[in-house]
Write a structure and sequence with these properties.
The chain is mostly helical. It is built from 4 helices and no strands. The radius of gyration is 15 Å and the shape is elongated. It comes from Protopolystoma xenopodis.
């Protein structure tokens, strides 16, 4: 989990550097959004599993974080749309 977070942070930092230089393209931005939102969902799901039944109770932050993580894959375009944008760049 920690390794995935570190890799994700490094990739997003790279994308931010590209953005600051006006070199960030749609495919790279889509990859960053897809990767980060997917990883967020996986980690939140693992956290719910670690908490057992308490992970599903609204009184605990882990449940709220899980719900927030699930919606991240929908905001600003679903992950399926991101995959399509990435694939267009690959085949062009």
């Amino acid at each position: 989990m920690k390794t995935s977070l570190c890799v994700s942070r490094a990739f997003i930092d790279h994308c931010l550097a590209l953005l600051n230089e006006n070199k960030l393209d749609t495919a790279m931005a889509s990859m960053a959004k897809y990767w980060a939102s997917d990883l967020c969902s996986v980690i939140a799901s693992d956290a719910v599993q670690l908490h057992g039944g308490w992970g599903y109770m609204w009184e605990y932050a882990v449940c709220k974080n899980y719900v927030d993580a699930r919606v991240q894959s929908i905001y600003a375009g679903t992950n399926e749309v991101m995959k399509e944008l990435i694939s267009r760049k690959i085949v062009s």
